[in-house]
Task: structure prediction
Amino acid sequence: MARSKWLTGISVFALGAGLVAAQQQQATTRPAQQSRPRQARGLVQPWNHIKDLNEDAKTKISEIHRKAVEERAAITARERQNIMALLSDDQKKQVNDFEIQRARTRNNPATRPAGR
Result:
C-alpha cells in the first residue's frame, strides 16, 4: 500500500513537472512565433470603428495591440509558474484536474452556458 502511494506520488510529480516544463517552453517560444509576419486581421474594437484612420496609424495600432497581448501572455505564464512553485504535489494535481475538467467543458458545446 505504501509502495503504491509512493509510485502515485512520483507519477503525479512527474506529470506536474512535465506540464510546467511544457508551459515554460510554450511561453518562451510564443514571442518568437509572434515575430514572424502574420496575416492582417484588421483592428480590434474600438479602433476598428474609427472611419478615417490611415494605413500607417492602423499598422501602429495593430503593433501596439500585438505587443500588449504578448506582454499579458508572458505575465500570465510567469504568474502561473510562480504560484505552481508554491503548491504541494497534491495541490498541483488538484489544479491539473480542474484544468482538464475546464478544457473538457469548454470543448463540449452541450456544457456551455447559453449564448456563448
